[in-house]
Design brief:
The protein is mostly beta strands. It has a single domain, classed as Maltoporin, Chain A. Helix content is about 10%, strand content about 50%. The chain contains eight helices and 40 strands. The strands form eight sheets. It has a 22-stranded antiparallel barrel. Strands 1-7-8-5-6 form a five-stranded mixed beta sheet. Strand 19 and strand 20 form a beta hairpin. The protein is globular, with a radius of gyration of 26 Å. The two termini are about 35 Å apart. About 55% of the residues are buried. It is found in: Cell outer membrane.
């Protein structure tokens, strides 16, 4: 299995190493369309310089890929900042993982990519990829080109159509609507180019990985329309295998076509689409065990699964279409409208841990239920922005006036059936009949399931208007002022019963859940969010900044009666230092932050109901972060990060938990004051370096790289009942580039977890194991793995 893949990779690289290095061509004339837009004073304007194969030969040849031309530098952050102001001048922290880093690290998913950014951790599984922790706060705010793709659209996030991943730190609801105060993640997709470029990549590796990636772009000749006015791009991937966990087979098809029309020199219209179809057994994780808290992950192999060989795959189907229309009135003023519509369905029947039957420390018995889930969701996002520049008394004003709207609706079914114990250390599989996985859905619909069942409908409508002015004085003092007003409506209809604990209650139906939604009151919230910041540059390469932002968050969760809880409100103070060194080729940001959040929602630890929980009075996250990106020399590139965070409950409002229909069985909740928040690492960091052999060296054409990713002990839940231990993982890569047959070829090998360290990336507190079951969904990191790829570009 994996051994044969490793052998093939070694043979391929050995054969390539025997080929005499061929000097790579200089950039060809006519390839200028691949150059990133110029932004004065930003590190993104610096030439990549020293990219493998650059400046080698004098003859014309295949063009450099867009990612190599950008190198380890951050492209402009127009979709994150929404104004044409260099990131260096903004009093906020925006960190970027460029495409070249994604390529060098062979990061196949969004979760693999964000490990390069300080203070960001993934709590996603292999099927649903949108739960992260930023600055101590769990978030599902994953954006695409500045528009939210909400939790109603479950999917894994492939990287084959990404040109960068941006993380906007701190309370970001000013620009993006209701968002968690840690920050937001923004995926920046590849756009059509008017210069032809084609690439095909074939990957294979450990755990039977087979992945094909395609990227094609260029102009389209249409009679009656000027040449190069219309361009297309098609990118996508097919993946089979690649998961180290027993009984999990991942098959994923991802397609991303797009078309761009330059209607006239001042007007551009771009349409993009995405389609994702995935069949894969969900990785529900492993249990944390012990006689008393704190519990620790069971000392078992990372590949061990508590699913079954006959477990059917989960199915995810998602589709998306979006457009971007921009018109420049003149060189100073422009209007832009973005729109996104998405729809998705996920159906799954997985074996998960039973929260009312924890692992027996003597018999090593782990109780499992078959948990069925189905979610069908719809998502609409749009915004309209007017941007411009003008001068008043010598001060430049870069202004933004806009409005956005977000609508999300989903129907959700959750239910469980059966009890199938298994030995943690000596599992014997085959005790779950195949029919049980298929029967659970009908049992739920027939109201005869013997475990927790829930039917829910939820709708969110958010309308926001905002205005912002970035004022520049004396060319080195930048003042950012802004305000936003939100009008938000949320309505939920929930009908849920835990039959095992409350058998006398009336069993729910989806019709009743939908009826509750129809009768539910529309909860209306409105809030004003101010923003102010200052950035001072005593010298051109150094700036000091400070900012204050207020954030209007979501109604995270509903009460036992289906009434949405109060919205979360946050305030953030931030200060720091930014530097652009080595002729703007190396950038660094040192940020200090203090964020407080009220009405923080935490799950009820005595229930597996994902809607059961309460709002804690106040939590606070303080910390320091350091991010570095760029080129140390023409040969050495770096992306590095470090974060020290302390996120705790500082004021709690304990309340009684009363099961629906059973007011006499209320249980007082425990105060969490002093507890650490879940999933964040108090100390974490990463360093990734690459060395491109210079053109005059014997090994020209080779690039070598490697790095370490580390994190300290992390609490897995807000109750602080279990711990994910500290770890350090060592990765490496090598690639060789050469020209042959009029094409540019790249052979690359990546080694992950070279030391074969045992580590845990995160835990599932959202998808399959919630509430008291959170400690049964710890995600082990992958053991040692090798991946080889061959890419051809022309």
């Amino acid at each position: 299995m994996s051994h044969s893949s490793e052998t093939r990779a070694a043979v391929l690289l050995a054969a390539l190493s025997m080929t005499a290095p061929v000097p790579a061509p200089a950039q060809t004339a006519g390839d200028s369309s691949l150059v990133l837009p110029e932004v004065s004073g930003s590190a993104s304007t610096a030439p990549a310089g020293g990219a493998a194969g650059e400046g080698g030969g004098a003859g014309a040849g295949p063009p450099l890929s867009p990612s190599e031309k950008a190198g380890y530098s951050a492209p402009p952050v127009a979709s994150s900042a929404k104004i044409d102001v260099p990131q260096f001048d903004l009093p906020i922290s925006i960190q970027t993982v460029p495409e070249q880093v994604i390529t060098d690290q062979n990061a196949l998913s969004l979760a693999d990519t964000i490990q390069n950014v300080s203070g960001v951790r993934s709590n996603s599984n292999n099927v649903e990829g949108y739960v992260y922790n930023i600055r101590g706060f769990t978030t599902t705010n994953v954006f695409r080109n500045g528009l939210l793709v909400g939790t109603a659209i479950p999917q894994s996030y492939d990287t084959s159509n990404l040109t960068a991943v941006e993380v906007l730190k701190g309370p970001a609801s000013f620009l993006f609507g209701r968002a968690d105060p840690g920050g937001v993640i923004n995926r920046v997709t590849k756009k059509p180019l008017d210069t032809p470029y084609y690439s095909l990549t074939q990957e294979f590796g450990s755990f039977n990985l087979w992945r094909t990636v395609v990227d094609m772009t260029g102009p389209v000749a249409i009679p009656g329309i000027a040449d190069k006015s219309v361009s297309y791009r098609f990118s996508g991937s097919y993946q089979n295998g690649g998961d180290f966990t027993d009984f999990i087979n991942n098959q994923n098809i991802f397609l991303a076509p797009s078309v761009s029309w330059q209607i006239d020199p001042a007007t551009k219209f771009t349409v993009e689409a995405e389609y994702n179809h995935q069949n894969a057994q969900s990785n529900v994780g492993q249990p944390a065990i012990g006689s008393l808290p704190p519990y620790f992950p069971a000392p078992i192999p990372a590949y061990r699964s508590f699913g079954e060989p006959n477990e059917p795959p989960d199915t995810v189907r998602s589709s998306l279409i979006s457009y971007d229309f921009k018109h420049n009135f003149n060189s100073d003023w422009a209007i832009e409208n973005r729109f996104l519509a998405a729809r998705a369905t996920i159906t799954k029947a997985d074996l998960g841990g039973d929260p009312f039957g924890s692992p027996d420390p003597v018999l090593n018995s782990f109780n499992r239920n078959i948990v069925y889930q189905k979610l069908t969701g719809t998502n609409y996002s749009t915004n309209l922005d007017l941007t411009g520049k003008f001068y008043v008394l010598g001060a430049r004003n870069d202004v933004l006036i806009g409005a956005d709207y977000f609508y999300s609706y989903y129907n959700y079914i959750l239910g469980g059936n059966g009890n199938y114990p298994i030995n943690i250390y000596n599992p014997v599989y085959g005790g779950v009949p195949t029919s049980a996985f298929y029967d659970v859905a009908s049992l739920i619909w027939q109201r005869s399931a013997d475990n927790f069942t829930e039917f829910a409908s939820n709708a969110n409508k958010d309308l926001g208007v905002y205005a912002q002015d970035s004022i520049t004085l004396f060319d080195n003092l930048h003042i950012l002022l802004g305000g936003r007003y939100d009008l938000a409506d949320v309505r939920s209809g929930v009908d849920s019963t835990d039959f095992s604990n409350y058998p006398d209650l009336i069993q729910p139906t989806f019709g009743q859940g939908y009826a509750n939604f129809g009768k539910a009151q529309n909860i209306h919230n409105q809030a004003f969010s101010p923003r102010v910041g200052v950035n001072f540059q005593p010298v051109p390469w150094l700036s000091f900044y400070g900012s204050y932002t207020k954030s209007f968050g979501a109604n995270n969760g509903v009460s036992a009666l289906g009434v949405p809880l109060a919205p979360e409100i946050a305030e953030g103070w931030e200060g720091g230092v930014k530097a652009e060194l080595l002729d703007h080729r190396l950038t660094g940001t040192l940020a200090f932050f203090n964020i407080t959040k009220s009405n923080y929602f935490t799950p009820n630890q005595s229930s597996i109901d994902p809607f059961a929980g309460r709002g804690i009075g106040l939590v606070r996250s303080t910390g320091v972060e350091l991010d570095v990106l760029g080129k140390l020399t023409d040969e050495w590139s770096i992306i590095a990060s470090y974060a020290h965070i302390d996120a705790r409950v500082v004021n709690d409002l304990p309340s009684n938990f009363c099961p629906p229909g059973s007011p006499d069985t209320c249980v007082a909740s425990t105060s969490y004051v002093g507890n650490s928040l879940n999933s964040y690492a108090p100390d974490s960091g990463s360093v990734w370096l690459t060395y491109a052999v210079p053109p005059d060296a014997l090994l020209h054409g080779w690039t070598f790289g490697g790095g370490v990713f580390a994190a300290g002990n992390r609490w897995g839940d807000d109750a602080n009942t279990f711990i994910l231990p500290a770890y350090a993982r060592l990765d490496a890569m090598a690639k060789y580039q050469f020209n042959a047959g009029g094409a540019r070829w790249t052979a690359q090998i990546n080694l992950k977890n070279i030391a074969n360290a045992t580590y845990y990336e995160g835990n599932d507190a959202f998808f399959n194991n919630t509430g008291a079951a959170a400690r049964f969904g710890v995600f082990p990191g992958a053991p040692r793995a090798v991946t080889a790829s061959l890419r051809v570009e022309f």
